[in-house]
TrEMBL record:
Keyword set, alphabetical order: Hydrolase, Membrane, Protease, Transmembrane, Transmembrane helix
Record's protein name: Zn-dependent protease
Protein's UniProt keywords contain Transcription: no
Residues passing through the membrane, by range: 127-160, 191-217
InterPro entries, sorted: Zn_peptidase_2
GO molecular function annotations of the record: peptidase activity
Organism phylogeny: Bacteria, Bacillati, Bacillota, Bacilli, Bacillales
Length: 224
């Protein structure tokens, strides 16, 4: 049973990462018919949504694309920033989807932003308590670790609707503004779906690990 659990825990994130890399690589080589670079796509979407104050900048690294709500910046990885591809278009639109969420005070994005400091602290501290609790068989410490870990799991779960909604907004934007043609829509959806899978995998593994620790804790209580 534990062998199956650890295999799933190990392979699920690896599969998700391989899937997104493979899908991105495939459609980053498909030139978009609009001929617009990722930077141009982002700028168009932002301006059309009253977000001219949001900057579009180049970011070093592979798939390092993100939106920073504090600096109001859409950062695109070098390839997506400069090249005109279906994958770059989808990724740029997705990050703009987060900018639109921010402007509209999308509830789950607001909640996730508030959870960031809590998740950062709890995720780092939880395993200290968990390891001490498990090694020394100290139930209260294990419980503290589980509670802290649960805060991180909540963050992972809240992230899912944020990412799904950003992808939905991305598709709506690139279709509404004629950035992609009908035949390109399935390709863009595949890129966004593959990216979303990484978040699903992260949330699933986090929930599985939390449940395992809860079962260990309840087993300790039953032994007393």
């Amino acid at each position: 049973m534990y062998i199956v659990y650890f295999i799933v825990l190990l392979l699920l994130p690896i599969y998700a990462q391989m899937k997104v890399k493979r899908t991105y690589k495939r459609y980053s080589q498909v030139r978009s018919t609009s001929g617009m670079t990722g930077a141009e796509v982002a700028r168009l979407i932002l301006d059309q949504n009253g977000l001219s104050n949001v900057r579009v900048v180049e970011q070093q690294g592979f798939l390092s694309d993100h939106y920073n709500p504090e600096t109001k910046t859409v950062a695109l990885s070098t390839h997506n920033y400069h090249e005109a591809s279906v994958a770059g278009t989808a990724v740029a639109a997705h990050e703009c989807g987060h900018a639109i969420q921010h402007k509209e005070a999308y509830s789950f994005l607001t909640l996730r932003s508030r959870l960031v400091p809590v998740a950062n602290i709890s995720s780092n501290a939880s395993w200290i308590f968990i390891m001490i609790g498990l090694i020394a068989t100290i139930q209260p410490l294990l419980l503290v670790g589980i509670v802290l870990l649960a805060a991180g799991v909540v963050f992972q779960l809240v992230t899912l609707p944020v990412e799904f909604d950003a992808s939905k907004r991305a598709m709506n934007q690139i279709v509404a503004h004629g950035i992609i043609r009908n035949e390109e829509e399935p390709y863009a959806r595949k890129v966004l779906s593959a990216a979303a899978l990484t978040y699903v995998a992260a949330a699933a593994t986090a929930v599985m690990e939390l449940l395992r620790l809860v079962l260990i804790y309840t087993g300790m209580n039953n032994d007393d």
